User: What shape does this take?
Amino acid sequence: MVNDEILYIRRRLKKKMDEDRFEHTIGVAYTSVCLAMRYGEDLHKAELAGLLHDCAKCIPDDIKLDKCKRNNIPITKAQEQSPSLLHAKLGAFIAADHYRIKDKDILNAIENHTTGRPAMSLLEKIVFVADYIEPRRNKASNLSKLRQMAFIDIDRTVYEIMDQTLRYLKAKKVPIDSLTKKSCDYYRALCGEKDVENETERN
Assistant: This one.
């Protein structure tokens, strides 16, 4: 049974988001819960983080910038050039300030769902991956492969998504947050270490 907190947040988000963004949000929440079941994460936390990950997405870019400045939210050069990137940081602030979310892991999952970060928690990885593979996504390449991989090796899925995203952004010549590059390097190295360990075990 859906609890009152989830229902309250759904109702508020439905009023604040356009239809496509709201449907995407429900898809991310659903996928986050599925991944939480697979990896043993708290289902309620996964659903909350999934629901609120884009709570600042529909705010106009100039207002995003203004709200971040007024609330002392750090802004990188890439984010100043492309304020849409701020929706994750601002979203974490709104989740805490407007929706009374106190759990730091949930707030981190919201804040890092776009760029990722090195050594993410399980919940952060779940929401990062869910945002990319939720059922209504249909434009990214290799989605079928990534959707299967997500339930087998979440770290490798994180890396594949980051690598694919960086390639796309470079091709489009749009600003890239330095944290995304650092995160991709971290998970590339982590997957490489896993490959070595697996090879050693086989031998």
Notes: The two ends are 49 Å apart (CA to CA). The chain has a mean pLDDT of 93. Residues 50 and 116 are 15 Å apart (CA to CA). The chain has eleven helices and no strands.
